[in-house]
Here is the input.
Amino acid sequence: MPKEILDQIKKEIISYIPKEVELTKIEFEGPEIAIYSKNPRVLLDSRGIVKDIARKIRKRIVIRSDPSVRMDEEAASQIIKEICPEEAGITSLNFDTNVGEVIIEAKKPGLVIGRGGETLQEITRQILWRPSVVRTPPIQSKMVIQIRHYLNKDAEIRKEILQNVGNRIHRPKFIQDEIIRITTLGGFREVGRMGMLIQTPESNVLIDCGINVGSPNNPFPYLNIPEFDIENLDAVVISHAHLDHHGFVPFLYKYGYDGPIYCTKPTMNLMTLLQIDYLDIAQREGKFLPYGQRDVKKAVLHTIPLDYQEVTDIAPDIRLTLHNAGHILGSAIVHLHIGDGAYNLAYTGDFKYANTRLLEMANNQFPRLETIIMEATYGGPKDNMPSRRESENVLTTIINNTIKNGGKVLIPVLAVGRAQELIIVIEEKMRRGIIEEVPVYIDGMISEATAIHTTHPEYLSKDLRQMIFHQGHSPFLADYFVQVDSSTARSEITEGGPCIIMATSGMMTGGPSVEYFRLLAGDQRNTLIFVSYQVEGTLGRRIQKGFRDIQMRNPEGQLEPVKVKLNVITNEGFSGHSSRHQIMNFLSQLQPRPEKIIVAHGEESKCTALATSIYKKYHIETRAPYNMETIRLK
Here is the structure.
């Protein structure tokens, strides 16, 4: 059946394209239709032809040159360097022979693109490879390089995967009934292991598939219920790169899933990093491993990254668009257009409806919207955070007082998001003399996650991009920050002079923050600052609640009592989640107004309180379902 559909698409395309294009192949490439040509210059010079075809067949089209006409890589590299001005600062060229693309890394990508794209078009005409231009990151990411290696090494496998995805997306629709259901698999009336299944008579789409790192008893989403059938799963969509939203995805590949994952490119890079780190920590601590690194690699090969606002078919009757969520780098509000405009569903994931130093605020404008599913992490009546300015002032005061008293400041951070936000704040305060200059030790995955941030500057806030690219100043490269590369250095740091320590994990469920805490807890001159949400059941939550006698394992693995004498401060204003006020403000400005609201990702009391408040204020049907409920939307 997909072959018949492809044959029909081919006939339509051929009828519109001039013969001199010399078509050699038309095939599915994931959600796109790839057109291979021996004379692609005709289409490249007449972009209107391609746009007209895409509009008429209602499919995304990509133009590729036939392998027989592409210039060899060495000669193509030489031509690229000759065409581009030397001041463009080209640092690397990576050729993907499978799809005929060349990634051009340059310090000044604008000079590679040229005015109105002229330079890029000239490159394409001469070498007949499809160029993709990216900015050379100031900090090289090992993970980004590793992922590129995976994709290049297994290019043939990747191509076969994309063809299979295309066949599944473009299969014929048999059922005209427009029933739409959502089944809650995790993260409803709780925080952690987020997941939900969207079903129509034609399609099954899983949105998020996370792990509750703080729960030893119920860490994984409910994939064992009758509604979930891995063999009939069309797609997985990941909202952002925190483990409670993606940590269980490789498990799907271990048990037979062979379909695509959709997310932004930063999310692809960050979630791979965090999944590998999750396995490393679990193995060191002797915990159960639900999957292996081979499954993580399978997930990478099946991931199709999308830009914000890019509309994509992911099933015969579902189109996906990702919008900025403002939570962490690459975080997305997921918008599903179901049927021929019959129903539109949005899922906020974790979102921040306010500008931060790192990111722009979440999007709140959609073409159509019937139902929205939104987080309630800070949905309680008293969950109104201090402003960023107040939070920065509090942070400054606490750090200066601790350093003045000869103590050390420990900040457990999520490697992605809060770490980079704090780096920006601390760098500015030290540069301006507001915080006393002391070493700021960075331990865990923070540096690698920061490198991934510098790889994707287009996702950062306008002010930060202005600072880095136009003022020539990057807070991520400041000399104040010292990377800790050895676990043996931790005891030296804790025995040394006043300093600031930023260490993962943010909820103290493992990682270096736990070791630093054990070493610093007994000295009342020291301070522990929580800047992110502490999930129930985590060590961080127990400390936050005021526990002062805690059993912890020493380096020999033996349990020993730890007396907590250091100061414990919670500074919630740095959170990447929306406060209660921001959630309500988001809803008041949301366009269009939805018919139904579903509340998720919050403790039970916060979900129910938020749902009640929304209904009272906006008179919109609002629900706070439990896990394993199925709700008919249409």
